[in-house]
Amino acid sequence: MINLKGIVAKQGGFTLKVDSLSLSRGELVAVLGNNGSGKSTFLSVLSGLKPFRGKYILDGREFGSLPAIERHRLISLLPQQSSLNMPFDVQYVVLTGRYPYTDGRGYSSKDMECTEETLRRLDIYHLRHRLFNELSGGERQRVLLARVINRDSPVMLLDEPLSGVDLRHQHEIIDLLKELSSDKTILLVVHDISLAVREFKRFLFFVKGTLRYDLYRENLDEERLSEVFQVRLRFIKNDESLFVYSEGKNREAL
To answer: In a 3-state reduction of DSSP, which class is residue 110?
Structure first.
């Protein structure tokens, strides 16, 4: 679905580098790293929000050759921070996720049906007539995630989708994303390392703007994670589960 080669993107004094990466349909991938490591920039490049050099193939075609409307249908992005701060009700906010499929003049009955289903799946149907601006931070996050999911694009880029979301809904969201990823490519920026290693099978680790490691769960080790996060991390294995805890600052990695 996605193939990258020699990607370089600059933003001020910051440079993102991805030498080579391939992502297929049916993958749910965690994107991890310390603050400022390039995770959000990486998603912005994939979504087309930031210019880049290098080769980016999306669905078998050069990304730069795709019309804007087709990009929007293929890729949906949940940014880390949203500028949406208007007095729209929840149902309309989620409905706008379907805009790339419209003729620009209105929404179809299918769009309305998809929106209702998405509202229910994210447990926000009861909020549908509430104004977005009146919601709590966690509720807003679930509404914005529902807007992305409602587009039903084959590639979903989610920058900290669990931020501010209560524990119950975090688990429900992860379960839903696992279900959706059966025929999609979904990337999530995650800060909870323990949650990531428990729920995900593939991991992209960024360090100072560079994709340092592309690992599957069975290849994770304490040394690499300690290097990435610059703290001494240890694993506890229990049957099929893996837990991560910190012993403190990893001076060897500094």
So the answer is: helix
Rounded to two decimals, the pTM is 0.92
Q: With pLDDT > 90 as the criterion, what percentage of the chain qualifies?
A: 81
Domain 23-53+66-220: which topology?
Rossmann fold (3.40.50)
CA-based nearest residue to 144, from 154, 156, 155? 156
Domain spans in the chain, listed from the N-terminal domain onward = 23-53+66-220, 223-254
From CA 208, how far away is CA 95, in angstroms rounded? 37
Express each pLDDT in 26-58 by its tens digit. 999 999 999 999 999 999 999 999 999 999 999
